[in-house]
Amino acid sequence: MIKISKFKAFLKRKNIEISLKRYGVDALSAMAQGLFCSLLIGTIIKTIGVQFGAAFLTDIGTYAMEIAGPAMAVAIGYALKAPPMVLFSLAAVGWAANAEGGAGGPLAVFIIAIIAAEFGKVVSKETKVDILVTPAVTIIIGVALAKLIAPPIGAGANAFGLLINNATTLQPFLMGIAVSVLVGIALTLPISSAAICSVLALTGLAGGAAVAGCCAQMVGFAVMSFKENRWGGLVSQGIGTSMLQMPNIVKNPRIWISPILVSAITGPIATCVFGLQMNGAAINSGMGTCGLCGPIGVITGWLSPSEEAIAKGASAITPSPFDWIGLVLICIVLPAVLAPLINALLRKIGWVKDGDLKLS
């Protein structure tokens, strides 16, 4: 018992918290931010550069995309409250894990960066040569794990993502509902739908369904709560995140019914009617209208598909008017129209009341 108490005290002193929140919420959400600040924004800048023939912007976007691994790992270390020497060393770990993990690189980075960061925290400031020991332990453990387990992790994640994509192609109606609803729910929960989509390399029809589900949540909540939150709420939820409604969902889970039903409607419309494919960077599949990244990802995929999408058979296309109509309907119009209508019915039967959607 004494040894166990000492071990717990040691973990507390090192700020090592082995919990679902620390790893499944904090670290995953931070990883998504790292991806956003490298791969995603880089893809957007590069696409603008390519389309307008601006080589300078193309180069900037390319550089940003190439440091996705280090950005994710450092972001994870930050979420785990790693000390500076550990945090900076994670850049090398992230680069190695992402490179060795291939298409499943983000999942490899997620797992390996957590392990390397925690080991680095264990030895941090425990010796008089901390400047050598801490970065050496962090990098050696992280890169060794990258060489050892990143390839199978990447292959497994890629295979699972491919299974979802293939299942959506074979059963677009049912899988359109399932993917749209589940990814949309993940978007509003305090976890990262963007990171999940990136880890699974979710592109193609499945990516399109995911975009539909995320937009249904964000635009749905933004429009149906306009009475309570006005323009500030419309922008913060529609362009920011529907996660702002989580405290209200905890108080009255029934307010979530409308966006979930809308995602169940728009998902299969995306897959079966418009054949909406999201072939940009996989992270876009889980972004919804946050910074308009979901629609931008679809447009990027039309013009310049990502490596993940190309590996699954995608190719550049010239979008037709039908494609553009489908994109606008799925991402903006249908959620904006259907969510308030369904919510009005819920209000009529007393399941949702005035003030239930008010942001604090």
Describe the 3D structure.
This protein is mainly α. The chain folds into 2 domains: 11-157, no CATH class; 171-348, no CATH class. 76% of the residues lie in helices and 0% in strands. It has helices at residues 2-13, 20-51, 55-66, 68-79, 84-101, 105-123, 130-170, 172-188, 193-199, 204-224, 226-240, 246-251, 257-273, 293-303, 307-311, 321-348. α2 (20-51) packs across α9 (193-199), α4 (68-79) crosses α5 (84-101) and α4 (68-79) crosses α6. The protein is globular and about 65 Å long. It starts with a helix and ends in a 12-residue tail after the last helix.
**How many strands in all?**
0
Total domain modules: 2
Beta percentage is: under 5%
- The chain-level structural class is mainly alpha
Show the helix and strand layout.
Elements: H1 2-13, H2 20-51, H3 55-66, H4 68-79, H5 84-101, H6 105-123, H7 130-170, H8 172-188, H9 193-199, H10 204-224, H11 226-240, H12 246-251, H13 257-273, H14 293-303, H15 307-311, H16 321-348
Helix pairs in contact: 2-3, 2-4, 2-9, 2-14, 4-5, 4-6, 5-6, 5-7, 6-7, 7-8, 7-10, 8-9, 8-10, 8-13, 10-11, 10-13, 10-16, 13-16
Considering the chains and any ligands shown, give keywords for the structure:
0% strand; single chain; 2 domains; globular; 360 residues; mainly alpha; 16 helices
What's the quick description here?
With 360 residues, this protein is mostly helical. It is 76% helix and 0% strand. It is built from 16 helices and no strands.
